[in-house]
Amino acid sequence: MTVSEPPREPEPEATTGLSGTSVTAGASGTVGASGTAGASGTAGAAQTPVTPRRVRMRRTVHFGTGPEWSLSQLGATAAAMGGVGIYLASLSGAVGGFDSLWWALVLLPALTMAWAGSAGPLVYWAFLLYGWFTLTPAGSFSWWSLPAAAGCVVGHAATALSASSPPAGSFTARTARRWIRHAALAFAAAVPVTLLAGLLTGRSLGLVPAAYVIGLGGVAVGLWFVRTSPPLERE
Amino acid sequence: MPPWRPLRTATRRLGEWEPTAAHQRAIALAAGGAIVAVVGRHADLLVIVTPLMVAALWGHLVRPRTEVTGTARLRDTTFREGAVTGLHVTTAPALPDVHGIVTVARAPWVERKPWSGIAELQDGAATLGLRWTRWGRRRIGTVSITLVSTWGAFRAGPVDLPDLESATLPVPASFDASAPTPHPRGIVGLNRSNRPGSGSEFSTIRQFHPGDRLRRIHWPVSMRTGALHVTSTFTDEDAHVFLLVDCFSDVGPREGIDGRPTSLDVTVRAAGAISEHFLRSNDRLTLRTVGAAEVPTLGVGSGTNHLRRVLDTLAAISPATERRDTGEHAIRGVDPNALCLVLSPLIEPTMVTLAHTLSARGMTVVVVDTFPDHLVEDPTSVYQALAWRIRLLSRDAEVHNLRMRGVPVVPWRGAGSLDQVLRDIARRASAPRMGRR
Q: Residue B98 pLDDT > 80, yes or no?
């Protein structure tokens, strides 16, 4: 692994001088610069150097001969690993422990880091959910499902955020805060479902067949609602 | 040849919004998990996939429905070496809660800031810094825009915008000359002539003639003699400078403005510096190139606008793109009274021949040697330095022949490089000479 330190870059709203040309960072929050070219108006126009004020180092990491990874991307991958870790810890709590080999699944987000925008995360999350399905007995309910939901949404959000930017791209704090806020709101939806499931566990309401129909109907309506590319009708 | 018009603004539609793998993952896991939870009576599994359901529905409900257009704009299309400017990228309309990424591909002699060339759009706008590190006309790296909606559910792009272009003018080396330019002939320059007239150089005090300006009256002498006397001056004249630039050779490692110069770097920057000096002195200047294809022909001119044209022409040079150029076209129709400055590292025999030809025509020729010294003094490559020393031995013979013909060869050293040789030429012009009968 190699950590490279690129040339220093101006901080947003910073002003620095480069070869006698004034440089002002844009207000976009990204590192930007706008300057005056000496020859834009008259050739050899006078240029005023400006003393640098603040600079920020952007570090990237090389794994062998692979692409450069920004620390933001590595942070997103670490968050995805944390999500899987929380999920596995919850599963362990729900089933009363399992083989230590399962803990190796924490590494899956790191192994699929370069393919965050592919079907890889779908495969391993499907595998993790299948593990919950097989390891917990049918008809049971565990309060550990609430932290597992948190791990699931954190893992999903971190992977989606990672896929939205190239490996060397960084995220601003504003973007990170927005994603955290969205993930927290999505997780909040799991709380009433957990309370409802906890209240109804062990009670026979006599509505089991109707609940099946209503639940599956809701899933079908949801799928119809979020369809994006309806198949073309045959002519 | 049509004038070069660099592209300053590039606009392109980003296309339709397509669902991403993240959105499909959320739908598949939520739907599959919910079905399995209901059928398999796993209420806790339903709890786990509830946030994914929310993410899928949320991402779908707030998906952008408008087509977005991306625009990249350079602040200017002409820069100096080492100059920094902003590349402004905007998307219209600026959609809320949309995560946008701008990437600028790597391009030679264009430094990107941030150096990864990746910036995040904030409120539909981003600014990246670009720094040009070598003179020439070039395209900046391809600008690509990608937009991702809430929860990374839908994506527009990545779309490559049409390439932007710019011209990087050489930074003229520091140059100044205190010696007068030989053979002044015009009427608008700063060179002193031997003819009385309107100017700034004092000539004598003489009696007032009708037509003399009142502000020229010399009152002390007038009061003393009782008759009006005026201060007379020598007229100021401009000279014609002819620059012949050798584009055959670009010797040495190309390291840009921050590194060691190549021979063509030295040549072009020296030509820029000499042009700037003489054009600011109101002299006329002609620039011709030898060995470069598609360089526009530049006529005689003076003033700041002509300096801009000269630097534009220098930026258009591509080294050694016309190997068969004999230079005959370049030296055709040159003013016989012009001061000919041949800028060359004297590696290509054609340039030596051209200097001989101009000298044989009776013109005042000065060869400015732009061979970079670091090639011979490079301690990292002993054999290459040795090879260059051997090559320079044969070059010395050609330089000696030029000197024997009366053509001075002066190494380019920046400010004051030409002072001594121009003074010698002025002295030689005023010295008595033997005429042939």
A: yes
Model confidence over B394-432: pLDDT tens digits? 888 888 988 888 888 988 887 777 777 777 777 776 666
Whether B78 has a pLDDT exceeding 90, the answer reads: no
Q: Which residue has the tokens 């799991």?
A: A190
pLDDT one-digit tens code per residue, B302-316 = 888 888 888 888 888
Q: Note the pLDDT of residue B89.
A: 92
Minimal Cα–Cα distance from A2 to chain B, Å? 16
* Confidence check: pLDDT of A79 > 60: yes
On whether any CB of chain B is under 8 Å from the CB of A176, the answer is: no
Q: Which numeric CATH code is attached to B9-17+63-169? A: 2.60.40.10
Q: Look over chain B and give the mean of its residue pLDDT values, rounded to a whole number.
A: 84
Residue A235 has pLDDT above 60, yes or no: no
Q: Which of A48, A50, A129, A212 to mutate to test the interface with B (most CBs of B within 10 A)?
A: A129
Query: Which numeric CATH code is attached to B240-430?
Result: 3.40.50.410
ipTM of the complex: 0.71
Nearest in space to B75 (alpha carbons), one of B145, B123, B135, B6: B6
The DSSP symbol for A103 reads G
Sequence spans of domains, chain B: 9-17+63-169, 20-60, 192-237, 240-430
Give the burial class of A4: count Cβ atoms within 10 A of its Cβ; 0-12 exposed, 13-18 middle, 19 or more buried: exposed
- What residues in B contact A229, CB-CB < 8 Å? 19
Q: DSSP alpha helices (H): ranges in B7-133?
A: 21-40, 43-61
Q: Which residues, in sequence order, are bridge partners of residue A93?
A: none
- Residue ranges covered by each domain of chain A: 72-203
> Smallest Cα–Cα separation from A55: which of B333, B127, B113?
B113
pLDDT in tens, A42-65: 333 334 444 444 555 567 777 777
Contacts of A68 in chain B (CB under 8 A): 116
Q: Using the beta-carbon criterion (under 8 Å), do A189 and B51 form an inter-chain contact?
A: yes
> Nearest residue on chain B to A165, judged by CA atoms?
B101
Q: How many helices (H) and strands (E) does chain A have?
A: 7, 8
Nearest chain B residue to A127 by CA: give it.
Answer: B29
Interface contact B131-A18, CB threshold 8 A: yes
Distance CA B329, CA B323 (A): 14
Average pLDDT, chain A: 72
Cβ distance B42 to A26 less than 8 Å, yes or no, reads no
Least CB–CB distance from B115: residue in A7, A37, A42? A7
Sorted by sequence, the CB contacts under 8 Å of residue B332 that are 6+ apart come out as: none
